[in-house]
Every structure is written in C-alpha cells, then in structure tokens.
Amino acid sequence: MDPDAVAKAFVDHYYSTFDANRAGLGNLYQDNSMLTFEGQKIQGSPNIVAKLSSLPFQQCKHSVSTVDCQPSGPTGGMLVFVSGNLQLAGEQHALKFSQMFHLMPTPQGSFFVQNDIFRLNYA
Amino acid sequence: MDPDAVAKAFVDHYYSTFDANRAGLGNLYQDNSMLTFEGQKIQGSPNIVAKLSSLPFQQCKHSVSTVDCQPSGPTGGMLVFVSGNLQLAGEQHALKFSQMFHLMPTPQGSFFVQNDIFRLNYA
What we know:
2 copies of one chain form a homodimer.
Chain A: H1 3-20, E1 29-37, E2 40-43, H2 45-53, E3 60-71, E4 78-88, E5 95-105, E6 111-120
Parallel strand pairs in A: 1-6
Antiparallel strand pairs in A: 1-2, 3-4, 4-5, 5-6
C-alpha cells in the first residue's frame, strides 16, 4: 500500500476516533508509547488515554489541512506530520494545531503510535 | 547529555546556520536524508541544500517558540518538533511555521538529519 495512503488512513481513523470516543484511542498506543501534549510528557497507553480523556472540553472536531509522511528508517516505521484546525464545542474560533506521529509496524501488519507530539499554533 | 538540551542545541545551530548561510546546512544531512518542504519531497543532502538555497528570499530570521523532543526508538534516534516564526526581509508580518526533525546518531557521536518535514501554518 502506498505510504501516503496509509498515513492518510491512519490520520482519518485517529481524529474520527478522537472526536467520537477518546478512550477508543488506547489500542493505537502501547506501553512504551510517548505523548508530548503542549510540552507535557506522558508515557504508556493508559496514561495517554487518561490525559486525552481529561482535556477540558467534551466535544471537538478536528479538520485536517495537510498530511506529510516519510519512512523513518530501516525499522519499517513511518513519520506522519499533520496540520489542521480544532473546533471546540461552544467556541467561536477554531484553534490551529500541528501534530506528529511516529508509527511503528506491529507483528499483525498494522501500526501503533510510538511517538506523538501535539502543539497548538497560537496566532 | 540531557536529550532536551541536545534538541535545543541542534535547533539553535540549525536555524542560525539557515539564517546566515543555507549552504552550510549540507553537512547536517546525508545521502538518504529526506526533506518534505511544503509538500514537496526531496532526498539527499545536495538536493536538500539546493532546494533550501533556491527559496525565493535572500534574508530571513527564524524565531523558535517551542521545542519538543522524544527518543525515536532503540536506534538512538531523536525526534525534535519545533514551532516558531519566520521573518522574511521586507515583509511586514512574520510567518508561523512548524517543523520536525528525526535525528540519527553518527559514529562520531554527533547527529545527522534523517527526516525533515516543514510546513507554514497559514492563519
């Protein structure tokens, strides 16, 4: 499968899950996965899901503007770089964000998120 | 050395070199390095330097707002995620950008850029 298509499919799945049911993101991470969210470092799927679930908004909608991807090296990993807008329920203006994922292959032929770094882009 | 300090030192070196002498960035990349610049994929140090040197502005100044880093896996690599502003000579307003680097260790104990993805964040 074309890497760009894999990246696009991952990104669509990730944000649709995030916007519908953040707890459902847990199976995309593993115990050694890392998230840096606005500078805060969190490790491991349970802690990452707890962080994402505790964000101070109930409903949100991600709109992806760009998706770039590159192979990350000989391990079969893939780097995915996303920019987009995040609309929070009740807020007039969307927030701009950038996020990168380092995806690593699983023995089952899928990918999990090894690294995840998220930043809002303040205007 | 603390990974955050390594990341910060790399970022400082990268952008000060970019702003003073873009051709000097060549020794940070290798033949298998990849740059995705605003969606355009370029491979190899000479091609990357040619691309950066051909950007349609002579003088610029990067101002870094945030630097996040994570180890990228068992290979000793490091992911560095940057947000900041890019001021072009003669332009009134700075442009916002996000950029990620995947740094890999060299036998000499330094790092080279395996992956580089750059995007402007349009308001």
